[in-house]
Amino acid sequence: MNFDFLTPIKDTIIAHLVLQSAQSLGRSMAIHSAQNGLPELEDVQIAIFGVLEDRNAIDNLWCGENIDAIRKHLYQLFPGNWHTSIVDLGDIQKGNTIADTYFAVSTLTAYLLKKNIIPIIIGGSQDITYANYRAYDTLEQTVNIVSVDSKFDIGSSEDELNSRSYLSKIVMDEPTNMFNFSNIGYQTYYNSQEELDLLQSLFFDAYRLGEVKDLTKVEPIMRDADMVSIDLGAIRQSEAPANNTCSPNGFYGEEICAIARYAGISDKVTSFGIYEYNPRFDRNNQTASLVSQMIWYFIEGVNYRAKDYPYSTKESYQKFIVLAENDDPINFYKSDKSGRWWMEINILTNNKYKRHTLIPCTYQDYLEATEQKIPERWYKAQRKLM
């Protein structure tokens, strides 16, 4: 396939890479350069590319201006004991129109997904999430989206697609392939009660910042995701100043890195995006360094995937049956390989939601079910499958 819309990494970054240790991450990956062209994608597991698009950014113009500082920090990090083949495909420049940029992102992402390559997208404004989502149309499957953000970005149905309204376009635009949406880390004062009520009426999930400070709650959320979108505005300003809308409150650097690692560990996550990096507000490349570490942790997570669900059969699990108040059994499964837990949703027909019948949960969810406290995520999934 022709990817003329991808531009190579700048020669200055390549020259800086030459000065790094031979064991550095940059020296161990194939890079799109003017001299060598696009790297081959055979046997590649992860492909990084940037999207230099900010025309639909709200209050964060220039966030698609330059991501070279991120690459500079990423390349000089040392990989772990990894066996993953990684390439950097360069950048998607602004198209003649924003629709052109979206088309390029969707086309490239769809191509990578079909080759079982995980794209890591470095934005650009967060409306690129919509283009990422549209890439899944070609797979003809329903999609679970997890957004790490202080805001829901719902907007209204009358709004044009932008970084504050992309979610409403995902919900409303055909084809509607999204099965579930989860927000991690919203801050209540940035979101209206109407927006929260709308999410609840759609049986979507929203977790306040204080609630997910217990990061163990993040793992089952990420385990059920197909694509993950992180807005750097979810990180506190002191940790990541390179965003014009950042807040004094948010995740700490080590917390957002742990969240990125949970996304990588998830067997279901097939695309990962970090958005709203604005180099004009970065201090001493502090945010660029943090983003590079987030990418590092995501890649490490991919290397430690247990490959239990959806790769294993139910015979690979221990089964526990809990009788609910109405005497309907809820089946819990514990992986023999990883020790992680799932609960089963029963559906009567073999429909397009079959891949969502096992819902990630925790051991605590199982214990509470034995005391007749059925997990809320089970109720929501059951309602969506009815």
Give the SSE layout:
Elements: E1 6-7, H1 11-18, E2 30-31, E3 46-51, H2 68-75, E4 86-92, H3 98-114, E5 118-123, H4 128-134, E6 143-148, H5 166-172, E7 178-186, H6 193-201, E8 205-208, H7 218-223, E9 227-231, H8 253-265, E10 271-275, H9 286-303, E11 317-323, E12 329-335, E13 341-344, E14 358-361, H10 363-370, H11 376-385
Parallel strand pairs: 2-4, 3-4, 3-5, 5-10, 6-7, 6-9, 7-8, 9-10
Antiparallel strand pairs: 1-4, 11-12, 12-13, 13-14
Brief summary of the model shown:
With 386 residues, this protein is of the alpha/beta class. It has eleven helices and 14 strands.
Along the chain, the helix and strand elements come as EHEEHEHEHEHEHEHEHEHEEEEHH
Radius of gyration, in angstroms, nearest whole number: 21 Å
Helices, by number, come to 11
What summary fits the major beta sheet?
A: 10 strands, mixed
Helix content: 25-40%
Strand content: 15-25%
Category from helices, strands and their pairing: alpha/beta
Q: Give the CA-CA distance, first to last residue.
A: 41 Å
